[in-house]
Amino acid sequence: MKTRKLVKRIEIEEMFTCTLELKSSLKGQQRDSISLQYLKPGTGESQLFYLEGQGDVILVEVQDNNRVVIGRAEIQVSSFSDAHLCLNLSMPADNYGSAKMLQGGLAVDTIIYDMVLEAAMRAQNFNSKMLHISGSWKWLLDEFSDYYGLSDAYRKLRYLCYIMNVATPTKDCLELTYELLLPVIKARDDRTLTRQERSILLDCEDRINVLLAIVFENYKSLDEHSITGLSELFGPISDCAAPALAPAVQIFSVLHDILSNEAQSILRSYLQAAAAKRCRRHMIETDEFMSSNNDNLLTDDMTISAAYLKMKTLCINISLEIQADIKIHDQNILPSSIDLPNIAASLYSTELCKRLKGFLSASPPSRPLQHVAELLIATANFERDLDSWQVRPVHGGVLSRELFHDYIMVWIEDTRLHLLDYCKAEKLSYPAASTTSPFVEQIYEQIRESINEYGVVINRWPQYLMSLESAIADVEREVMKALEKQYMETLMPLRDGIPKILEKHVQRLTRRQSVAPYVVPNQLGTFMNTVKRMLDVLHCRVEDILKSWASYLTIANGTTLFGEQMNSITVMLRKKYKKYLQAIVEKIVSETQANRTTRLKRILEETKETEGESEMRERMQALRAQLSDSIHNLHGVFSCRIFVAICRGFWDRLGQIVLRFLESRKENRIWYRGSDYALGLSYWLICQETRNEIPCADPG
């Protein structure tokens, strides 16, 4: 509480005496030596009191000539109006002694000392950078105080008052303040201070607390070379404690019981205010992106990318601030009960989280592009750093996964829908002559590019691998459906369950093909080559990327394990490939059975006992020619592996025909010999034709 001087004038009849006393001066049964004052009526006498606060009370007692109490009253100081108070407001702050002399009082020696002290300060150009009194002026002050018997506490308090008038948050100022304050506080604890000294001390304490607040609330912005003691520029983050911080902590510990919860709470509030100031300065650069009218600002890719870059820089700078706090804390300047990193980080983390939420809401990321990925990495690294620095998590702080979760799920769904939309049949053009479908090659290239964009997400949060796998599996199924729809007319003769009308139409076609064998269309080759490439190459590439992210991890979602979706696609492609491969073999076999001259069973039935191998060769000449044309056609349409697989399937089917024929006629050995000739010739023929097309192939 600032020192106030209250002058109360009493004018009453001469037969009465009035006593005035401050209630705060009563300490149990003891009084200050000058606490009780007698004022004679009619003399206009006045008395100077030193208040300890507005809550003080003046005790008034009226006595007669025989000292009999006529009446008593308690007057609250706060109830006085300006008319009743005579405050020292008309004199400058540095003329305290002169003002007191003009008002009059008992302590003339202190008034004169104050005047000498003021003269010394003016002579030595006393200012914020020149706080020490030295030389002859110091000698004069010492001699004067010794001669008049001024207490050391008063001298230090009066000097401290003048220092507070020009005080700055610098090491020299704070060290001098601590040097002057410490013995005064000890004297107060020893109850040796006068009332006047206690009043001055209260005023000094208030002003020192203001100075300490400035120090602690700007502990990273203190500058010894600045006039104000504070840096005017928001420069690089310093990880070394400012020189003024140590004496500030010493002064704070003198004025407060640092072990008390109240003192610790005060210091924490100062440090949190400092963190708030630093955080605010960092966030100024991103304020423009938080405006409700920023729809017109983020319209082009360059602007959006720059905005995300600034948010990334913000995350890095806040992380550096906390790292600097850790290093300052490790210098053991602050009290052990004050955990600076956690105090500052709690505010930094919550404020950064609010800013990130607001920014992402105002400028939502549409997909994990590079600038989005960089911000995501910076946010995840911030959270990881706090954990590695053993900073306690705080409610409302940065949780990078929660910040990006909704956006990641939207990205995955958008990727799925975009790729599914690309698979729509009406958007597919019929390809020109090609070994594989360009559509499938393009869509799988898009799938790989889309998956690779999620690397930054999956590497940090593998949980999203399940959702991504499911989305990609849906796309691959749709690719297969779109491919079948694209080649629907080509595949129709191979499908099972053909309607009767179409079946009759196919039979008519096969009868005409008895003269002209069935020719496998190039489109069927493109389809089968594409399915085989999907099974052996394209799908495996996608699966390998996903499996690389799932290495050494056990990821489960309910009863579903990672990899089930990819396995289901592999099974589906194998079934499709096998189904259409068997259908092609059946189609070729049906072609050989449609004509009497090429029907193997009929050839075997017409075999006679007297016929030899030459006659059998002649009988199978038509079948041989048809097989040769079919094999040549197959090789020109299908890839090598598919071609060999069809030839093997065709040989197996011929063998089944012969086997069933023999099983139905076990009693006739003639057909055994004819079948042996037929199988031998068929195998030789297939091998010969296959080797002619592919020298290294062997259907057996």
UniProtKB/TrEMBL annotation:
It comes from the Eukaryota. PANTHER family: PESTICIDAL CRYSTAL CRY8BA PROTEIN, PORTAL PROTEIN. This is MHD1 domain-containing protein. It comes from Aegilops tauschii subsp. strangulata.
